[in-house]
Amino acid sequence: MWAVLAGFGAGFLVSAVLFVVFTTTARFLGASIEWVGGVTTVGAIATALSVVYTVGGRIAVTAYAAIVIVERLLALPSLMRLVSRSFPKPRCARRSPTSSASGRRR
To answer: What is the pTM of this model?
Structure first.
């Protein structure tokens, strides 16, 4: 299990470095920074998987992948709550031409 812990540590460090480098570069060039989080995550996961495989082999990669999947599934309800609060439903939705104000068909 030390391989999994080493993988998480390496992924965290790479994520931090990539985030700072890409954010600074994008701000300097005047580009949008929406893509930085995705690229950083891909780089961190790739680094973590390579460290885990090198240190612990296939069993450690399976354990790492299982932990990441459980972590993402546990974070899903709070992410859904955040999105629903950030983007509320519109107050007046479009009505179809065949419906009336009461919701019944004409």
So the answer is: 0.72
